[in-house]
Structure formats: C-alpha cells, structure tokens
C-alpha cells in the first residue's frame, strides 16, 4: 500500500497518527508537495481525482480517499488496538464526537485560516469577511469543546480513540494558525499535553 501524504497538512497527520498507534509498518509514504502544486498534476489526479490528500492506494490499484475512510479501512485490517469502538454505544459515541469536531470545529477554523492567512493567498481565493465569520464560529466551538473536555480525560470516554486523533490534529494545527492562544482553553491545553506524550503525536 502507498499513502500519499504531506507533512505540513493536518488531514494526512490523522492517518499517520492512526498508523503509528496501530504499529503498521508496511505502508509506503509518498510525499506530495502542496506548495508546488503536485496535488494538482495530471499524475496525481489519476490517483485522486479530487486532488486532495491523503489518499491510500492499495496493492490492486484501488484508491481510498478521505482520512477517516482510510483509517476505518485500516482498522478492519488491523483491529487492535481498537480505535473506533467496541460496544454499540462506544462506536456511536466515537463517531458522533469525531464528526462534530470535524464539522463544528475543524471546518470553521480551517476556513478562517485559509481565507485570512497571507500564506494561503496563492492557494485560495480569499474572502476576508467569510474568513472572519468562520474564525468567530471556530472560537465559539473552541469554548464549547473546552467544556466537553472538562468532563472526561479523553474526548469520547475513558480511553484514547480516533475522536482524540480528530481533536488533536484540529487543535494543534489550527489554534496557532488562527493566531489564537491555547492557554485560553485550559482543558484543550490539558488534552494537548496528554496526547503529546504519545509516540504517535510526532508521526
């Protein structure tokens, strides 16, 4: 298998962290340089028509796109340690929290960054008003999820799961890029400190 990756992007990091937690060592990593536009080349579009990363290419040529889908596929191949839940309620809880973090927190913070940060001007048709609106939505969500994390050590219960990977790849990446302070969200900071102790954090 080959994983088309980029060390600077948050979505591929989700997959790298997942691979690290699973101790999978038979996936070839292929770096795609986004700043050079390698994701938009005809060669890469033949693999991933949406020109996005990550993409997992199987040995038979089949390609799986979208980070969560890739992780779900790998979970089925490497079921231990379990990261997507065991009981019906745990499976539902992990799915709920990872989806909420993605849609309510990651997307608005990502849009704030993409539409406001000068470094993104070459990759995005920036709309400052839209970016400010999305950033403000992201700030409200940070306050909400800070409260969620005050109720449990991990995002979706009492153990580390894919929901924590979704959270840390969002907060560790986008809080700083939106020129916000992690210290303003003490429970998110606690979660960051907790997850940063894992080997997969540096994947």
Largest sheet: 4 strands, mixed
The total strand number stands at 4
SSE pattern: EHEHEEHHHHH
Q: Please state how the strands of the largest beta sheet are arranged side by side.
A: 2-1-3-4
Helix/sheet category: alpha+beta
Low-confidence stretches: none
Give the fraction of residues assigned to helices.
40-55%
Q: Globular, elongated, flat, extended or rod-shaped: what is the shape? A: globular
- Approximate strand percentage: 5-15%
* Number of continuous helical runs: 7
Short description, anyone?
By secondary structure, the chain is α+β, with helices and mostly antiparallel strands. It has helices at 10-22, 42-45, 67-77, 88-116, 128-149, 162-177, 186-195; strands at residues 2-5, 28-31, 55-57, 63-65. Strand 3 (55-57) and strand 4 (63-65) form a beta hairpin.
Question: Which key features would you list for this structure?
Answer:
203 residues; 7 helices; 4 strands; alpha+beta; four-stranded mixed sheet; single chain
């Amino acid at each position: 298998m080959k994983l088309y990756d980029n060390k600077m992007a948050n979505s591929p990091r989700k997959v790298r962290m997942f691979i690290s937690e699973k101790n999978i060592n038979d996936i070839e990593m292929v770096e795609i340089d986004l700043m050079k536009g390698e994701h938009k080349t005809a060669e890469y579009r033949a693999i991933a028509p949406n020109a996005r990363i990550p993409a997992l290419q199987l040995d038979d040529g089949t390609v799986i796109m979208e980070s969560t889908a890739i992780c779900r596929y790998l979970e089925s191949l490497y079921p231990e340690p379990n990261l997507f839940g065991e009981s019906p309620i745990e499976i539902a809880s992990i799915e709920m929290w990872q989806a909420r973090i993605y849609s309510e927190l990651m997307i608005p913070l990502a849009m704030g960054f993409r539409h406001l940060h000068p470094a993104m001007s070459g990759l995005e048709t920036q709309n400052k008003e839209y970016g400010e609106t999305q950033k403000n939505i992201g700030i409200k969500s940070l306050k909400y999820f800070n409260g969620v994390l005050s109720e449990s050590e991990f995002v979706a219960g009492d153990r580390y799961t894919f929901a924590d990977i979704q959270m840390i790849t969002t907060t560790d990446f986008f809080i700083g890029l939106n020129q916000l302070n992690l210290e303003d969200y003490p429970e998110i900071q606690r979660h960051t400190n907790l997850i940063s102790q894992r080997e997969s954090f540096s994947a």
